[in-house]
Amino acid sequence: MGQLFAVEIIYRGVFQKTLAKNITRDIVLAAHNEGKLGISFGRYGDAPERNGIPAKSFAIVANDEQTLQEGMAQYEPKQVDLTVVLDDTLCKGAESWAWYGLQPVHHALKPGHALIVVSLQDAPALLKTIHRREQPYKLGILKGVTSFSGMWVYKDDHTDVRVLGAIAKALPEIVSLQAIEQFITEKLKSPLKVTSAKTAYDRFMTIDVEAGAGNPEELFKFELPKWEDMRDGVSIKGQPQGGPYKDPVTGQVGGFRPARNELFKKYSSRTQRPVVNFATCTKCTLCWLNCPDASFDVTAENTYDVNLEACCGCGVCEEVCPVQDCITMVNESQFKDNRSQYEAFQKDKDAYLKWLEKTIESAVPIEKRTHGFRYRGQYQEQVPEALEVARKG
Amino acid sequence: MATLTMPVQEKKKVKIEDQEALITGAEAIAIACKLANVDVVTAYPIRPYDTVMQYISQLVADGEMDCEYIAAEGEHSQFEIVKHASVCGARVFCGSSGVGWMYAMEALTVTPALRVPMVAMVGNRALDDPGAFGVEHNDALAVRDLGWLLTWVDSAQEALDTALIAYRVAEDRRMFVPLAISCDGAFLTHSQALVKIPSAEQVKKFLPRYDRGDLLLHPDNVISVAPQANEDWVTEIRRQNYAVTERASDVIREVYAEFEHIFGRKYGNPFFEEYMTKDAEVVLLGMGTLSTPARVAIRKMREEGKKVGFVRLRWFRPFAGPEIAKCLERFKAIGVIDRDFSFGSPNLSGVVATELRSAMYTGSATRPPVLGFIGGLGGREITVPDLEKVADSVFDAAKGIAQPLTQWIGLRG
Amino acid sequence: MSTTFIDEKPTQNLEAFKGVKKVPHEEYYTSGHRTCQACESAQIMKLMAKAAGPRTIVLGSTGCMYVANTSYYATPWGIPWMHTQLGSSGSGALGVAAALRVQMRKGFMKDEPINVIAFCGDGGGADMGLGAISATMTHPDYNLLILMYDNESYANTDIQISGTSPYGVNTSFSTPGKVKRIMHHRWKKNVAPLMLVGHPTCKYVGTISTSYPLQAMNNIRKALSIGGPTFIHCLNPCPKGWDFDPVLSFELGELAVNTGIWPLYEVENGKIKLYGKTEQIANGRFKRLPVRDYLLKQGRFAHFVEDDIEYFQSKIDEMWNKWLVPGVIPLQKELDADVPPAN
Description:
The structure holds 3 protein chains of 3 kinds. Chain A is α/β, with parallel strands linked by helices. Chain A has 11 helices and 14 strands. Chain A has 2 domains: 4-222, Pyruvate-ferredoxin oxidoreductase, PFOR, domain III (Pyruvate-ferredoxin Oxidoreductase, domain 3, 3-Layer(aba) Sandwich); 240-362, Alpha-Beta Plaits (2-Layer Sandwich). Chain A has helices spanning 17-33, 65-72, 123-127, 159-170, 177-188, 191-203, 286-290, 316-320, 341-347, 349-361, 378-392; strands at 4-12, 37-42, 54-62, 80-85, 109-119, 137-143, 206-209, 235-237, 243-246, 253-257, 272-276, 296-298, 304-306, 327-331. Chain A is globular and about 70 Å long. Chain B folds into 2 domains: 2-263, Rossmann fold (3-Layer(aba) Sandwich), CATH 3.40.50.970; 272-408, Rossmann fold (3-Layer(aba) Sandwich), CATH 3.40.50. Chain B contains 14 helices and 16 strands. In chain B, helix 11 links the parallel strand 11 and strand 12. By secondary structure, chain C is an alpha/beta fold. Chain C is globular. The N and C termini of chain C lie far apart (62 Å). Classes of the chains: A alpha/beta, B alpha/beta, C alpha/beta. Chains in contact: A-B, A-C, B-C. Strand 9 of chain B pairs parallel with strand 2 (81-84) of chain C.
């Protein structure tokens, strides 16, 4: 049997759909320049994609037809030679809507192989969020601004070719830099992109991550029931009604905490989270009322505490909040856990407000955010900055 | 005609409160719906089934039947309305014919997995194109793989009795699946015969109230029904429906026994009926009203010394595979008369012949030849001489003279 | 005539919430659905459930909000909910209403008013299910509401043209190409007026927007209380299909109203009432914003050239300046030639 390689791209549904598809297609086409064969596909269970919900795309490459069939004989690769994560907030784990609970980003990565993350953070920071695993692996960071766009308008910021460059460095057996350069020159017809790919190749390196290093969080486990144990009539039990909120510090009872779906929590869709200033909250209800995910608990004193397992980080609460800086969306990579902000506030108001002030400093102003299409011409404005980060490496 | 097809009365003492009436098969089913106190009925016009809906409309107007009677704007809605009503606990009735049944196909497809005990009447009709009003069985047979229970009746009496049996079977908690009663267009839907109508009290004894239990869609039972499922679940959900089909035969047998006990009419083996088969060398087999010319032809041939019998298949789903294979293995050859077609099927036969061959392959020790005959399409009459010709061919096969596996009856050419 | 054959059943008679602070805390469509970030369709589902309360049965026809809102074994619903086929919101609602009514009449079920709502998308409501909804709207004696959420495409299947997709929009079935910039040249179907003009039986038809949540809930409560079949059309900005940063969901809902593209009105027992900014536009108290402000915030219109924007504007102007009932009923005394821009 010849050699068989699988690459998986973990990305944000819709926001990075075109990007991920381009990368896996380009891998196959570039490798074909070297006489290899391959296929490229998105994980069918992730479709139809939803904005932000983690998804996967694959490239499988082999040097002969029969070996390729070995790779194609599976619904999706059980093990991959390379995992690429296109948004570093995914390092906290991905809950696709194709399975139950979080999967670590290196879930399918072969021991000793490389995990490539597009990020502005360094390895120690990322390793605080990437779950620990029993086998060692390699971690490589492709320095870059997360590339987000949508269904119709693609932000061409060279993330695709930069990832290709990094792949050629991490796994030259699948595709060489020469093949990638040739592909970009012939198909994408962009000398600048050739340079971007080559720069990424030259600068890309990995560090060894030892077994057991990383985020110790225990992951949710779900066992699929037997057919006899499932209700018939394709029916499932609905959600119970919630009840009053009990203040974690004062014990005061009031407000409301809804029951929530325990089997699908939406937080791994989140790239930013609301940070709430309970001191300036006017209890106007708008964040709570306008949240499509019912993620706010109504506290005993009628402020609104976001449940960070339910929140998917859309930012509507920030948009509708009438008080300046009362709700601020902050990049998810700043946070280590999903603990209640209100509880922290109640425990020590001064400390919380100090933390809040410091935390929201890093917030990107709404008009500069790179979280999808905001106006025509926005991407053209954003691309030079992204390229500049890429150029500096 | 009615006396020929009437099942033999039982001798055991049962208080019979029947009244007699001269009615069509469609009217008989309408009366069964009244007796069953059906809650929601949806109608849409298409010949020939729709006379049942005309009768029900009259029963409602005359205050004899209390139900929501809804004239839908198409068959798809017709079946969707009762599907939803059934999930909300109502006993429902519906029906269609030919392409009308096919227009409802999506709704027909989803009901078995939802475990909806809908009872429907199919007035069998040829599928378009060309538009034709006459009988063919391809309409009802189109749902044969989806989890529906399918039965064919051959008399107005049997139509009435089977409609009552149908509710009892479909609404059994072990089942909860849709059931279609097929009546041959014209022969049964539009011709009147003497029928014994049981009393409401007897029916009440036989047919308990439909109880949807923990599957009821109601604010007191907060459930989500039929959420989107990925490949982690669908195999198991299909297996649940398969389990229903595993149980179906036993439930049907039980219900027929109970029917006999309460009403005194005896149907014998619920799944198929044998006529003059005891000493037969060969048999003909078919469904529905074919039984009448078949019986006449059999008697005529018997007079000529030909040892031939007839088997009428009453239930197509569940298909009594092992049992019918066991029954048929004693004959030297079998001729299956299909009032349907299955273009491109193995041996290019009709649906019943194809199914029967499959049943015989695993269920019979002898595997006698099974010849397929396609006839009576678009409502064309299958005559006694036609059946004699069919029997001749089957006798030849029994003698070892090679016969085509599929032949067309009464084809000009 | 002393007797009527129309047998109206009482409704729950849900009164309007008097202010956001009076909105109940209970959630009947809670967290844990698999919708996009800032999904306004999920938002209207949440508001609808909140407005209707616990004695309600909801049917969800196939579409984005079937596939994403409830996944097997993991439901966010706290009231009974059932999947309904794509074209069946009308017939499904009718079936449920009929079942409740007859069982209550016969004494098989406790006699009480139960809300019946069928929730369908523009694909299910304005395209495939239109006939069934139309039939249902003619039944005077069943209390039910059809709520059509409109994200202007078949969003679940990755955004294809529906009967309510706006002119010129980029969808998977109308992607601009090298020769044709505009592949979709049909104008959006005017669904609510279709319901109100065609079905005199229907006592309540209205339009709502998720950007006005309290108003939306109160209109839903009114529709559920008035009796008989009712219809509400809700415009739902869709971050995925319309291609915008999810944070803009709320703002785009407002812009659709403020540009006059999405008029807000309700027709109660035949009497029309424009409300919110729409009413101000009609009375000349608010000047419509240019449609450009709305169009250019969405990736789906990114291919528009000036001619397209102007044409779009001219059609909205026509709606307000020439229609006999401005923004609602497209009857005109005189017709201008319709000249869409060339490719």
